[in-house]
Design brief:
Order of helices and strands of chain B: HHHHHHHH
Structural class of chain A: alpha+beta
Radius of gyration of chain A: 32 Å
Largest sheet of chain B: none
Number of helices of chain B: 8
CATH superfamily of the largest domain in chain B: RNA polymerase sigma factor, region 2, helix turn helix motif
Strand content of chain B: under 5%
Oligomer: heterodimer
Largest interface: A-B, 47 and 56 residues
CATH architecture of the largest domain in chain B: Orthogonal Bundle
Low-confidence stretches of chain A: none
Number of domains of chain B: 2
Number of helices of chain A: 13
Distance between the termini of chain B: 37 Å
Helix content of chain A: 40-55%
Helix content of chain B: over 70%
Number of strands of chain B: 0
CATH topology of the largest domain in chain B: Rna Polymerase Sigma Factor, Chain: A
Order of helices and strands of chain A: HHHHHEEHHHHHHHEEEEEEEEEEEHE
Strand content of chain A: 15-25%
Mean pLDDT of chain B: 85
Shape of chain B: globular
Low-confidence stretches of chain B: none
Number of domains of chain A: 2
Shape of chain A: elongated
Number of strands of chain A: 14
Chain lengths: 485, 180
């Protein structure tokens, strides 16, 4: 105690001209809680506010309940739930910035179907757990407030807190069903605003009569604690996506030997197979065209304007071949070309919808390789496709990969798939498409693979995409007409 | 909360009005008195005095100047301080002989003290909201640092640090005007 402190303390500071309001032990905590609940529930989808506001709200709710945890059992329970909620919320934000979340989703690759679309089951379960914890926290708050009124012998005036519990509990099934629209959301928002306002009134009444608190001591002041709760997720959002801006390139697994002296090569050249493409294919790849009796080439030759913003130049070849099992089938080869300056780009995605009608033909899963030269050596990396159906149930195959960091020249991707006839005696025309996506920015939150963007068909400013739609033909030998469509 | 009816009931000396005041404000009055009079018996006696004083002086209460809770707080704080001073004097009078000069203030001293108080509160008014709260709680309501820290969600060290900075600032601004 210094001299000035002693003077102030011992001389009993006289009353100011305007009588000061009495200290309000509940005001700060209840203010934090009300604002916290408000920020958690508000969803504004611009300027990343949909991430920032709930993070601020979670921190405020925790800060508000922290000093009250020794008040009674209800508040203690609410504090524990708010802590669990804040930890889960922070973990969710951090996970969404990394591929780990995609991995967790892939462990149980199931979707939950709502009226507004399909959502990954894993995300739905996590959102439900968060909402459940929030409901429990509000329930604890309700019981805690009731306990305070009962302790001082007054009838509880906590209907708003009880209403808020019902409201938070109702949000759970509403989200599961996927109810949207202003007609429903509007009244719900109004009720919620009334409840929050009434909760604030409860805290004012607690202050007015000055119910003393048994506040719990804290090890970290509100400011630094708030900074920590907010800083960790914000740092995760800002920095983690930069660490995962590329996909690993599983290259150098084999050395590719293009060219060869198969007699089939001569036959293909006679059918009109582009010589420069054929010379880049291995004998194994060329043997897929064994029994070819026709050829259609789309997009050849490539022009220099075919490579805007990292999108590959594309040539697609359709080769019907004789087949012992079906009589014939068609082999498709999509050739993708990236210029050398695209090396080291962030992420590439390819979507192949092998039949737009979905039932006209039977197709195989595409298989592809990415080839490039580095230091004079040819390198190969597999392009792996997986089947996913989008919201319109269009069967499509998706591949995600990154181009190598260094390449001595053009990078080439060769993707093969086959189409088998359902009715071999008929000539069948159908549409198929190839879509390429390219990520321009190193930062993206949440972590999203090109296939997710292609599946949702929603391309943000950090993405470029291009779609080629072609008509395919399934016809037996003699009926196949490469100029007929 | 609107206490107009309760104030009217007290002013009209209606039966039951006092019980209502007791039920509504006893926790708050205890909260104000407790840090100044840590002894429970003293605090309870003081609480009774305050309620009696409120009942007797309700006619002089002006709702335009302060809310009922603020007025009651003021009564409680002053009553508790008076009781603490008289307790102290009683203890000192048994310890010291009667050669100690009379400590009552003369009119000049009272005038100086009022001027100092005005300067002090003007300086406090220029502090930030949280610092004002800390000053009021510590030096006007005599709350313990640990209580202030817990209620405001701060560590004891943080409160001590802030109070130290507040005192330095006030000392600087008052420039020797305030001598206690």
């Amino acid at each position: 105690m210094d001299e000035f402190d002693r003077l102030l303390y011992q001389s009993s500071v006289p009353a100011p001209p305007d009588l000061p309001e009495p200290p309000k032990p509940w005001k700060r905590s209840m203010g934090f809680i009300c604002w916290g609940l408000a920020f958690i529930s508000i969803t504004l989808n611009f300027l990343s506010l949909d991430l920032i506001l709930p993070a601020v709200g979670t921190a405020l709710l925790w800060l508000g309940l922290r000093p009250l945890r020794q008040e009674n059992g209800g508040f203690r329970f609410a504090y524990l739930c708010a802590t669990a909620y804040a930890l889960l919320h922070m973990t969710t934000i951090v996970l969404l910035a990394t591929p780990l979340d995609q991995f967790l989703t892939s462990l149980r690759n199931a979707d939950w179907h709502t009226t507004s679309g399909s959502v990954s089951l894993h995300l739905v379960l996590r959102a439900c757990l968060l909402q459940f914890l929030l409901t429990l926290a509000v329930g604890g708050l309700w019981q805690g407030l009731k306990g305070v009124f009962v302790r001082v012998g007054q009838s509880p005036r906590t209907a708003a807190a009880g209403g808020l519990v019902v409201f938070e509990a109702l949000l759970l099934p509403m989200a599961l069903i996927g109810l949207e629209g202003w007609l429903l959301v509007g009244p719900v928002l109004l009720v919620w605003l009334l409840l929050i306002f009434n909760l604030r009134t409860i805290s004012a009444s607690l202050d007015e009569v000055g119910y003393a608190l048994s506040p719990a001591p804290v090890r970290l002041s509100a400011g630094p604690a708030f900074g920590l709760w907010l800083g960790v997720p914000l740092l995760a959002i800002l920095l983690l996506p930069l660490l995962f801006s590329r996909l690993p390139v599983n290259s150098q697994t084999e050395v590719r030997v293009p060219g060869g002296d198969l007699p089939l090569r001569e036959e293909l050249l006679e059918l009109g197979f582009p010589e420069d493409i054929l010379s880049r294919l291995t004998d194994d790849e060329v043997s897929r065209f064994d029994g070819a009796y026709g050829l259609t080439v789309k997009g050849y030759p490539l022009s220099s304007g075919d490579f805007p913003d990292g999108i590959p130049g594309t040539v697609v070849l359709e080769v019907p071949v004789q087949d012992a099992r079906y009589g014939f089938h068609v082999v498709y080869l999509a050739c993708l070309f990236w210029e050398a300056e695209e090396a080291g780009g962030y992420m590439e995605g390819i979507k192949i919808t092998s039949d737009h009608h979905g039932v006209t033909v039977r197709t195989t899963c595409p298989q592809g390789t990415l080839n490039w030269t580095d230091g004079g050596v040819l390198h190969t990396a597999p392009i792996r496709f997986r089947f996913r159906s989008d919201g319109s149930w269009l069967p499509s195959y998706f591949a995600d990969f990154s181009l190598p960091k260094t390449a001595g020249g053009r990078m080439e991707g060769y993707v093969f798939w086959e189409a088998m006839p359902t009715f071999p005696e008929l000539q069948i025309l159908f549409n198929y498409s190839l879509t390429a996506a390219h990520r321009l920015s190193p930062w993206q939150y949440p972590y999203t693979l090109p296939s997710d963007v292609l599946l949702a068909n929603r391309f943000g400013p950090e993405w470029r995409s291009r779609c080629w739609i072609y008509t395919g033909q399934l016809a037996p030998e003699g009926e196949y007409d490469s100029a007929g469509y | 909360m609107d206490y107009t009816k309760l104030i009217q009931a007290m002013q009209d000396r209606r039966p039951g009005a006092m019980e209502e005041v007791q039920t509504a404000f006893t926790p708050m009055l205890r909260y104000i008195i407790a840090p100044i009079l840590p002894d429970t018996r003293d605090a309870e006696e003081c609480l009774s005095d305050v309620l009696l004083q409120a009942w007797n002086t309700i006619a002089s209460y002006d709702p335009a100047r302060a809310s009922l809770s603020t007025w009651l707080t003021h009564l409680a704080r002053n009553a508790a301080l008076n009781r603490r001073r008289s307790n102290q004097r009683r203890r000192e009078s048994t310890a010291l002989d009667e050669t100690v000069p009379d400590s009552r203030e003369d009119p000049e001293q009272s005038f100086l003290k009022a001027e100092q108080a005005q300067a002090l509160w003007a300086a406090v008014g220029r502090l930030r909201w949280l610092d004002q709260q800390l000053f009021l709680r510590k030096y006007y309501y005599y709350q313990l640092t640990a209580q202030i820290a817990a209620e405001l969600g701060l560590t004891v060290r943080a409160v001590e640090g802030r109070l130290y900075r507040i005192r330095r600032r006030l000392q600087r601004e008052l420039g020797g005007v305030y001598h206690g």
